[in-house]
Amino acid sequence: MALTKETVVDKIEVLEMGQVQVRTATRVKEDGAVLSSSFSRHVLEPSTKTGDTWADTDISGEDARVQAVANATWTDSVKTAYQAMIDAKTLP
Q1: How many CB atoms lie within 10 A of CB 80?
Q2: Which secondary-structure segment (H or E) carries 89?
Q3: 75 DSSP assignment
Q4: Which of 12, 26, 61, 81 lies in the 20 to 30 Å Cα band around 41?
Q5: What is the pLDDT of residue 1?
Q6: Phi, psi of 91, rounded to the nearest 5 degrees
Q7: Is the CB of residue 28 less than 8 Å from the CB of residue 3?
């Protein structure tokens, strides 16, 4: 009767403007059978803005599969379109 807890990235979605949404599942198991599950999500943006400067989002701490999806998705044109959308929303 061994209890284990595992945390896995179980869903990776690419949103309309290039954001990558990541769902992480936390599962408590007893002898391999799932007793409970909970989920959390976070969203990664193609670029981050500090002041008036845009930079690539640091994804070095993400799961390897998340990094692969983000790197494949975040082309220069996707980043430029995302930056233009955010800049248009933040104009006074």
Answers
A1: 13
A2: helix 76-90
A3: -
A4: 81
A5: 78
A6: -70, 140
A7: yes
